């Protein structure tokens, strides 16, 4: 008889598995331990519904249950919905041994992980140890469930004074409670004290996280880099290293860090999504498409699945296939079309998603020079847009972007001007409007223009103003309305002819072009002061 026989009699169990034989076997073993209240579910969705209707103290959930939610997604959703208390125990059960599956499962930190086949002695040893720990520290866990972190921290102190056998676990809990409650000073002190006595990995990780939250990313990077060197499969350290690198403005390094983490554990949805977003920002469309592809697939049956995630995936494919009429470009466009069909089927009752999907589709078709098909889709989207009771700024921006892609600059500009008038205090939105007006072209064209601009800046800084002039002219052939480029070109001309005004007709043409485009700038534009300064310099030299 188990030493916790009476404890198990009071507990409520749930076994989640799609095989009756396994459920029957588990029930028999649990009854030998003293369990009386045991229920079962045949798949992940049923498990979630049972947990919504009832509370279970101990859950055993199989990892692989066919096309339904897997065990990792069940754990993820139970936590997301706050259906799993800190006092509860969740065991992930699996016959799988593939590294990527095991890594993915363990990243979600179930209380226990058991591989099949399960014996009576294995079950008893693993369960006894966890139940004893939960029972001993149940007052701390209950305070955590109530989000009374001050009380939980105080209770941790009491257990430490009583020389609990779970001292290391209590210190870990207490430090995390300081961190969760935003008391970074106490969390940092506790982590440093622990490391001074014994350099535990979880304490180093915790210290690094505190440094990030305190705004000390450089020191945090050193902590995480050392930790990764010592424990190369500790994927959480990679996630936080990437956060620190982003704080330092090192987006390319952050992408490389996340790529390393994904190679170790490719089944973590939120990490794949983060990699997709940062690589898209870095204009690495190949990596972005691959990561979006993974995150879109991993999100199926997940509580983190959103239409925006799937739409971002297709937006990336649209950017990637833009202007590429090769077989590879066509393949990417076809992939985008298939994904859009699935999105429309999945979210058929969501009007905004239907509209967004058509806007993206219009851009995909335009990028493959299918102008007639693209315009038909745009017309459908415009009709939907006109019937929307309420539109968001993001939706209007996407409509304008699509209009620009289909060479309807007048209507796009009209939409953006109206949007700016409706939100005069929203600085971030106004900046995005300015960016779209500056660069109303495809991402690939924007990247090319920015490369020319960078080249021009480098030449200017070296004093090679003639080469700078040519580079800025090349950039402006792609994005002629870009305010910053016009200012760069104007500044270069002024510098090049600072001593003697040029009689060159080409220079005169360029000056007139810049002034014509810049004269419409208003005082609230972020580049207005720079324009006024250059205008004064030009007049002084004339």
Concise synopsis of the structure shown:
The chain is mostly helical. It contains 28 helices and five strands. The protein folds into four domains: 5-136, 3-Layer(aba) Sandwich (Rossmann fold); 266-389, Serine Threonine Protein Phosphatase 5, Tetratricopeptide repeat, CATH 1.25.40; 391-440, no CATH class; 443-541, Serine Threonine Protein Phosphatase 5, Tetratricopeptide repeat.
Note down, in words, how this protein is organized.
α2 links the parallel β1 (12-16) and β2. With 542 residues, this protein is mainly α. Strands 2-1-3-4-5 form a five-stranded parallel sheet, with helices on both faces. It has four domains: 5-136, 3-Layer(aba) Sandwich (Rossmann fold); 266-389, Tetratricopeptide repeat domain (Serine Threonine Protein Phosphatase 5, Tetratricopeptide repeat); 391-440, no CATH class; 443-541, Serine Threonine Protein Phosphatase 5, Tetratricopeptide repeat. The termini are far apart. It is built from 28 helices and five strands. The protein has helices at 5-10, 20-33, 44-53, 71-80, 99-107, 120-136, 138-145, 149-161, 167-180, 184-197, 201-213, 217-230, 235-247, 251-264, 269-281, 285-298, 307-321, 327-346, 351-367, 371-387, 393-405, 409-422, 427-438, 443-461, 465-478, 483-496, 505-518, 528-541, and strands at residues 12-16, 37-41, 58-62, 89-94, 112-115.
């Amino acid at each position: 008889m188990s030493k916790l026989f009476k404890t198990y009699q009071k507990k409520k169990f749930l076994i989640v598995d799609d095989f009756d034989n396994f459920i029957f076997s588990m029930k028999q073993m649990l009854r030998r331990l003293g369990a009386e209240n045991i229920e079962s579910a045949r798949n992940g969705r049923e498990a979630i519904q049972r947990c919504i209707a009832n509370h279970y103290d101990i859950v055993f959930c199989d990892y692989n249950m066919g096309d339904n939610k897997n065990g990792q997604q069940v754990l993820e959703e139970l936590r997301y919905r706050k259906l799993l208390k800190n006092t509860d125990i969740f065991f992930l059960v699996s016959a799988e041994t593939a590294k990527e599956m095991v890594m993915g499962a363990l990243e979600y930190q179930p209380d226990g992980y058991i591989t099949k086949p399960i014996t009576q002695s294995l079950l008893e040893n693993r369960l006894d140890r966890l139940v004893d720990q939960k029972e001993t520290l149940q007052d701390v866990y209950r305070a955590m469930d109530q989000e009374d972190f001050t009380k939980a921290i105080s209770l941790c102190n009491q257990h430490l004074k009583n020389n609990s056998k779970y001292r290391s676990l209590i210190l870990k809990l207490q430090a995390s409670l300081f961190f969760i409650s935003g008391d970074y000073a106490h969390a940092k002190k506790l982590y440093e004290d622990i490391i001074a006595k014994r350099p535990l990995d979880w304490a180093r990780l915790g210290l690094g996280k505190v440094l990030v939250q305190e705004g000390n990313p450089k020191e945090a990077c050193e902590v995480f880099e050392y930790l990764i060197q010592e424990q190369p499969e500790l994927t959480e350290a990679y996630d936080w290293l990437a956060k620190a690198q982003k704080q330092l403005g090192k987006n390319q390094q952050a992408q490389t860090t996340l790529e390393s983490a994904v190679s170790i554990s490719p089944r973590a949805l939120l990490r794949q999504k983060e990699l997709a977003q940062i690589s898209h920002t870095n204009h690495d469309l190949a990596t972005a498409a691959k990561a979006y592809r993974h995150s879109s697939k991993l999100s199926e049956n997940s509580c983190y699945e959103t239409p925006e995630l799937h739409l971002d995936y297709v937006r990336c494919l649209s950017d990637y296939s833009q202007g590429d009429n090769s077989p590879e470009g066509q393949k990417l466009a076809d992939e985008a079309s298939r994904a859009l069909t699935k999105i429309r089927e999945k979210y058929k009752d969501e009007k905004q998603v239907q509209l967004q999907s058509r806007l993206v589709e219009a851009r995909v078709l335009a990028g493959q020079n299918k102008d007639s098909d693209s315009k038909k889709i745009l017309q459908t989207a415009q009709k939907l847009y006109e019937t929307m009771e309420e539109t968001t700024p993001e939706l209007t921006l996407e409509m304008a972007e699509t209009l620009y892609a289909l060479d309807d600059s007048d209507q796009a500009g009209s939409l953006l001007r109206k949007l700016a008038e409706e939100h005069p205090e929203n600085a971030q939105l106004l900046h995005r409007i300015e960016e779209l007006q500056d660069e109303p072209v495809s991402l690939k064209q924007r990247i090319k223009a920015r490369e020319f601009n960078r080249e021009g800046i480098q030449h200017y800084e070296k004093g090679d103003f003639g080469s700078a002039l040519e580079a800025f002219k090349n950039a402006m052939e792609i994005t002629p309305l870009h305010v910053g480029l016009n200012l760069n070109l104007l500044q270069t001309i002024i510098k090049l002819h600072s001593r003697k005004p040029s009689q060159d007709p080409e220079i005169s043409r360029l000056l007139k072009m810049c002034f014509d485009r810049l004269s419409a700038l208003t005082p609230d534009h972020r580049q207005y002061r720079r324009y006024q300064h250059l205008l004064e310099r030009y007049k002084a030299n004339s």
